[in-house]
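Researcher: We are triaging several targets before committing to wet-lab work. For this one, the compound of interest is magnesium ion. I'm pasting the protein sequence and the ligand SMILES. What I need is the predicted three-dimensional arrangement of the protein with the ligand bound, expressed as structure tokens, so it can go straight into our comparison scripts without reformatting.
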Amino acid sequence: MIEIENLSVKYDSHVALEDINLKLEHPSLLVIMGPNGAGKTTLLKAILGLVKYEGEIRIFGKKPEDARNMMGYMPQRDKVNTNIPLRVKDVVLMPLLSKYYFGIRMEDVKNAKRALERVNMLHYWDKNFSALSGGEQQRVFLARVLAQNSKILILDEPFSATDVSTKMKMAKMLHKLKREKTIIIVTHDVNPLVECTDKLLLLRKRVIAYGTVTEVLNEENVERLYGVRVPVIRKENVCYVVGGDVHLQR
Ligand SMILES: Nc1ncnc2c1ncn2[C@@H]1O[C@H](COP(=O)(O)OP(=O)(O)O)[C@@H](O)[C@H]1O
Ligand SMILES: [Mg+2]
């Protein structure tokens, strides 16, 4: 259960988030959409306790800094240095090692292997991470988060640089995982996830809309969010944004 009340974040005098209020049940899947600079990453960082904020954030009743061990974080790909001289296995094992004083436990290796298998990357176990394609690196980053077995998964643009087949596979896996986890995903392409999204947040410094996909995803709200009219198709109980990737400039 994540509760956010009157949340604001400032970087010096620049207001990145203003008066955010939302409640998210456990287990569930939340998708966050918004234009570049809307404060999406900042909101994730506030939940993770990585930025200073005003207001209240409670994660299963705890403050973010006291709830870190419940949360696995996959940062936005273009914000991390992917030119690192590490093998795939090191990338996945690294966050597991820091929990212990020394050595690798067999259990950690097993978890790392299982996570890589889930994203179809186990055969790259010994490969150099920097030699992989962007989409493959994303899958390894996802495995790294999965291997931590956290109750809460926080994924910043996990689909960027992935092809449509990888995207659909990732979405299917997240659909299964959300039965037992709280998953928060920032994405510009909600379409692969519409069927498993419990809550959709349209964010542009403030909350433009928050609710179920059917409540929130309509042409008026998308226009308020991005400043352009994008067709939204309603099919049975599901909505799709035409063009899929609404990665639009403000
Ligand atoms: N460390 C920082 N210092 C100063 N300004 C920042 C910092 N991080 C983000 N910002 C600014 O805050 C706003 C929101 O950024 P961000 O949360 O990264 O947006 P998004 O993820 O939606 O693209 C942007 O205007 C960005 O330039
Ligand atoms: Mg971002």
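Researcher: Any quick observations?
Model: The longest helix spans residues 134-147.
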